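Appendix C reproduces, verbatim, an entry submitted by the partner laboratory led by Prof. M.T., so that reviewers can inspect both the input and the predicted structure.
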Amino acid sequence: MSLISSEMREVKGVTYCALTIGEVSGEIPRHLLSGEQECGYIYRDGTLSELYYSRIMDQGGMRSILYDTPLMIPVTEIGQRFPHQIKERFVELSQAMQAVPRTFFQNERGFIPSWRLYIFEEGGAALLPSRLSDLILYSASQKDRVNHINRYHRPDIHSPFALCHQLAQLLYLSLAGFAPFEIEEVRLTAYRPIPSVIAVKGLNAVSGETLDRILAMPISKQRTEVSGAYSASENLSWFDTQIQGLSFDRDEEGPPNNELGTYRSELMKKGQKREFWRKKGMGIAAVAVALIIILTVTIGALRRAAEPPYTAGMSAPQVIEEFFKAQNDLNIEQMNASLARGVSNPFEKEVTMFFVNDRVRMAYEQIDALITPEEFVASGGESIPATSMLYGVGDLTVTEKSDNTFLAEYLYYTPVLDSENTESSEVYRGTVVLNRVEFTLSDEKGYELITDIKELGFEKVKEIEIPYSR
């Protein structure tokens, strides 16, 4: 049950606006009340004034903050209290947030707890300061922490864009009755919110598309839409221009929205399937690996015995370069094409594992799960898709050591295979290793064949963290 609420309350003959913030749970930490009280702000009719609470009161097992103001209505209640003024209330709230000093909403991620935002019945907004927000955090229930903090966070949010995104989420919440990223099926399907026109019965299509575009905007687009030189609150003017001229009226009459229930059911099926393959895909792939290895080795051996490899006519360094190109392509057949009979490929099992995982995800999710270092550099090297892993060989050099022996040195990129590399993570984590491999070749059959592969050792170069793009 949510405990954060507001009411007008008489205390010793004086009427206050009482913000109930949670159950009494011991003494309030001293640092939250010591020193000069940090001011909040009231914004009304374009004018900003300071706001201070009158007292903090524990009564009946509940803790409240008392203000000498009219009723302060939580932003999360706009949809229920003002169903025909939703847009106007959010525009006024946005203007209030822009009017306060630049540092008022500064924090690490740009998002703020929504228990800092209130409006008045007759117009205007009230904004609570950061220290008072910490006091509420200390007293709030776990449910209230989820409803006012956790439900708004999602991966890949550019900090200067965060408040624009959060106001769009609060607007969606006021219209639909639920936040766009709080339901499980949305989180399971890469944080793609239910379209507004489906979530909100009778919503204008243009208004719904605008809201959806803000909520689904990739981080690269966020950077171009708002200025990184401004604070998150200063960039809210961009949000105002996006919803200017739009209508957010809803159809509050008539039968239930059956389309929403159907959409959520289908979304849950997709989410459960994605989650299944995320958790079980590698295990299923391992079962298939043995079969693929047998088929690959058998077919490769027969083909090599019957005809020259496709590398016939290439020089020894070119054969080695083709060997690693085939590794990047996850092509075991081409990797083994130039191996002499009986020569073992030390990378075969690893490449086969990634090949199977990539093809399984392609078959079930239409996702290409791997990108090579070359593709990553060609794309600009700033981010990778949230569904992909960075794997393969880069910066290859082949040096002749003797007439038949060559040294291959290259950077090997591989993912960190742990629970942190998920589609809900903010960054991709991987490792870069400097590998050294010695190749021996022979041209006894009239073309170069690899007769020996010897791994000389490796050296860890660095751990990498790359932002996901969505």
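The chain has 15 helices and 16 strands. Additional entries are available on request from the coordinating office.
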